[in-house]
Specification:
With about 130 residues, the chain is of the alpha+beta class. It has 4 helices and 5 strands, in the order H-E-E-H-E-H-E-E-H.
Length: about 130
């Protein structure tokens, strides 16, 4: 269900470490077997060294053994409908197919549902590098 993934993203957002931007973000991913991995953005005084909520969630997912990602939810306290940054679209596409559902949320729930393929058309694929 989309709303429970949103709730996981919002719970993660409460743990954001964003003292510089004061822009907490939460993300949650679900795999086809129902496991949920969530994360928040983590900032660093040397600003470019910080990273996004989606990236934290992907770290948990990879460390737990990965799997097929079917759904992703992203939420931000201060934005009506957050969309993942370009770098996170590419990171998500490393592990989730273009058909994966992406729930764009505000503070109360899902505002819009798109696919990862719609969010990253013509994305770079690493197949040739393998
Ligand atoms: N941020 C995310 O966590 N995810 C996104 O998709 C967009 C931006 C974070 C990074 C930084 O900590 C703060 O939002 C402001 O850019």
């Amino acid at each position: 269900m989309a709303h429970d993934l949103f709730l996981a993203a919002r719970a993660a957002m409460a743990k954001a470490y964003a003292p510089y931007s004061k822009f907490p973000v939460g993300a949650a991913l679900r795999t086809e077997d129902g496991r949920v991995f969530a994360g928040a953005n983590i900032e660093v005084a040397s600003y470019p060294e910080g990273w996004c909520a989606e990236t934290t969630a992907l770290g948990h997912y990879v460390m737990a053994g990965g799997g097929q990602i079917t759904e992703i939810a992203v939420t931000a306290e201060r934005m009506a409908r957050i969309t993942p940054c370009g770098g996170c679209r590419q990171r998500l596409a490393e592990f989730a197919g273009p058909e994966a559902k992406l729930y764009l949320c505000d503070e109360t729930g899902v505002v819009e549902t798109v696919t990862l393929g719609e969010m990253l058309p013509y994305g770079f694929k690493g197949e040739i590098l393998k």
